[in-house]
Amino acid sequence: MKTILQSAAAHTLLGLIFITFCFSAVEIWHVGYDWHDQQRISQLLLLSVYAPLIFYLPQASLPRPTQFLLLTLLILGLCSCLFAAWPEWAFKEWSRYAGLILLALLAGGLAARPAGQNFILCAMAAVGFVHAFQFVVSYMTAFVSGMRMLDADLLFSGFSNPRFFGQFQVMLMPVMALLMERCRQQQRLALAALLALALITQWCIAFTLGGRGLWLGLLVSHLALLLINRKLWRILALQAAATLLGFLLFVLLFKLIPLWLDLDPALRDNLRTSLSGRERIWQWAWEMALANPWLGAGPMHYSATYNPIAAHPHQVVLQWLAEWGFVATLIALALGAWGLLRGAHHLRQASANELDAGLWVAIVGALVLAQVDGVFVMPYTETWLAILIGLAMARCSKPTTPSRTQRFACALIAIPVLLVLGKVLISEAPTLPQTANDYMNQHHTSWTPRFWSQGWIPM
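Structure (tokenized):
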């Protein structure tokens, strides 16, 4: 009985830490910190707590070639850290990626339990519902308060930048659609209707904020799903219906009502065609990669060379080439291609259902968006991506016990993850606002997110 109570208490604690991370994009509770820094702290807390438990909790089993490639990738990253100009900052980035790998394996292990899998997906949908509710309340407040001002940047909440919200939405929307289809199949129509309203509102927010990368990611991922298995067309149909209704809601709220009340809403341009300076930071990243072809400049070290645009390249392949080198990047691409092909093969099986389709679409959409945005930089986005990859990995694999080699390697990797990220939480996070402000005042820079909201290193 005592063991059962201890197990229940441990799982409750882990669940509370996970919920704390989930709702770090809902309400600010760290005074003096912005959304990005709060989410980074919550991410580091999640990884620091979960990583040491990798040896005790169930985890997904990886094939030996995948284990070898992942281990090689992490070893190359360690070498890159040692030769970097600022090894302390490089080790932070390496530890974060290692922690995300461990988190994906743990999520894969929990996926074997339907209750754990449903808990994770429902928590994600709950965050999306709260964001939709906050958006509606903010819109109504603009009229009730008498301000009569509709500014897109003031109507959404939870993220420092609309693009960061779009990174979350590209994974959230497919998850909400799969949960809606599952509720419909189970005749839980009231819950399905609630999810539908939240999804439609999310699409209205997407049109309001003008996220071109979000639309591209969802379009490519859904069309790819249709090409792989047409029998899973319901997920695409639900998303298409939500898109249409979300657009109609957008027209009503931001075109017709403002026209009727003689208001001029401040919206982002949905038809802009420029790259917003990306071509320049892409060029600088490529030049850095050519200058450091073997091990890169060091993890996070694109941020060590100041430029007037951004502290990261907004393109994941160029980011890895510049910071980790060509060999590590090729290994990462090979692992990504293996995962996508394995997922596509599973989707073609007769046993594939809306859960498999929704997870695959969410992951592919995020990877497409990562070609034009910093998906592998923002803490909230990359953590959810690791969790969804873990769930999808478990769906595509037969439930087997991980080898002793994998368990030993994971336990070994968890040690530096805990030490490095724990040190950041203890010694760096408490004084972060003052440190960041001092840096910006001294160097005359503005907020440019990377690890922290002030992203230039060393800080």
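Residues 2-422 form one domain. The chain has one domain: 2-422.
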